[in-house]
């Protein structure tokens, strides 16, 4: 969630754009057909809330890249703990030419948001564990992904504390979100991943906006999913 008083640059000393420029040097090769694409993470990537089969960000990216193998391991309510256990705990992932990861939002929402789905139903968030899990995911994904896109977490309230209160969240969540987004960018830079700043992309398109990209308070609609897929494709092209 965007906070005028806590920016990504202030929190980590480098903006997402600067991290992107640095990481693009290692992952700036174009991706075209004949690739294996693995999508990991939460409902930011899934089809469900777009109400269109194949309308989710991951599905749309698979079409844009003309992949010949698409493994969509994303699921509603996914947390960092859930992805670590489900995708890395009991199986060996096949190497992938492209991997996208959308994660972290449900970890933050778990303590306050009333609609409990999937791993988010645990109802608690431990910031130190969350940041450590992002570190672990970065290390594990770096072993199987040739081109990887990490994503920051968008703010469905567009920085409005009154709207955040409707989700059961307090203003204190904003510097926490800035910290988590900064850490996602740092891990991406560490491993030479690409970083897509969904917080910036969705600003002005929150649930209460005149042109919303979000439904059910937190989920990307078809317009939002399309914007994400195009942003990913732009990074990978």
What portion of residues belong to β-strands?
5-15%
Mean pLDDT: 85
Structural domain count: 1
Q: What is the top-level CATH class? A: Alpha Beta
Radius of gyration: 16 Å
Determine the number of helices (DSSP H or I, runs of at least 4 residues): 10
Q: What letter string, H or E per element, gives the SSE order?
A: HHEHEHEHHEHHEHEEH
Report on this structure.
The chain is α/β, with parallel strands linked by helices and 237 residues long. The protein has one domain: SGNH hydrolase (Rossmann fold, 3-Layer(aba) Sandwich). Helix content is 43%, strand content 13%. The protein is built from 10 helices and 7 strands. It has helices at residues 8-12, 16-27, 57-65, 80-88, 105-109, 127-142, 161-166, 173-191, 198-202, 222-236, and strands at residues 36-41, 69-72, 96-102, 145-151, 194-196, 214-215, 219-220. Strands 2-1-3-4-5 form a 5-stranded parallel β-sheet, with helices on both faces. Strands 6-7 form a two-stranded antiparallel ribbon. Strand 6 (214-215) and strand 7 form a beta hairpin. The longest helix has 19 residues, at 173-191. The chain is globular and about 45 Å long. The two termini are 28 Å apart. Residues 1-33 have low confidence and may be disordered.
Show the helix and strand layout.
Blueprint lengths: L7 H5 L3 H12 L8 E6 L15 H9 L3 E4 L7 H9 L7 E7 L2 H5 L17 H16 L2 E7 L9 H6 L6 H19 L2 E3 L1 H5 L11 E2 L3 E2 L1 H15 L1
Parallel strand pairs: 1-2, 1-3, 3-4, 4-5
Antiparallel strand pairs: 6-7
Helix pairs in contact: 2-8, 3-10, 4-6, 6-8
């Amino acid at each position: 969630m965007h906070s005028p008083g806590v920016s990504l640059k202030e929190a980590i000393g480098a903006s997402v754009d600067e991290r992107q420029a640095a990481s693009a040097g290692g992952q700036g090769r174009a991706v075209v057909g004949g690739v294996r694409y693995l999508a990991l993470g939460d409902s930011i990537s899934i089809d469900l809330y777009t109400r269109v089969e194949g309308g989710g960000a991951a599905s749309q990216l698979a079409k844009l890249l003309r992949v010949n193998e698409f493994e969509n391991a994303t699921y509603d309510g996914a947390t960092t703990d859930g992805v670590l256990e489900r995708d890395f705990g009991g199986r060996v992932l096949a190497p992938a030419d492209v991997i996208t990861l959308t994660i972290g939002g449900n970890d933050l929402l778990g303590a306050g948001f009333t609609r409990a789905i999937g791993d988010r139903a645990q109802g608690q968030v431990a910031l130190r564990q969350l940041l450590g899990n992002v570190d672990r995911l970065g290390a594990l994904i770096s072993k199987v992904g040739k081109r990887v896109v990490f994503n920051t977490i968008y703010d469905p309230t567009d920085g409005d504390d009154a709207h955040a209160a409707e989700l059961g969240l307090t203003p204190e969540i904003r510097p926490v979100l800035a910290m988590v987004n900064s850490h996602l960018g740092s891990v991406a830079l560490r491993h030479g991943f690409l970083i897509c700043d969904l917080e910036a992309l969705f600003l002005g398109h929150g649930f209460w906006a005149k042109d919303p990209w979000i439904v059910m308070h937190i989920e990307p609609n078809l317009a939002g999913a399309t914007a994400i897929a195009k942003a990913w494709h732009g990074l990978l092209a």
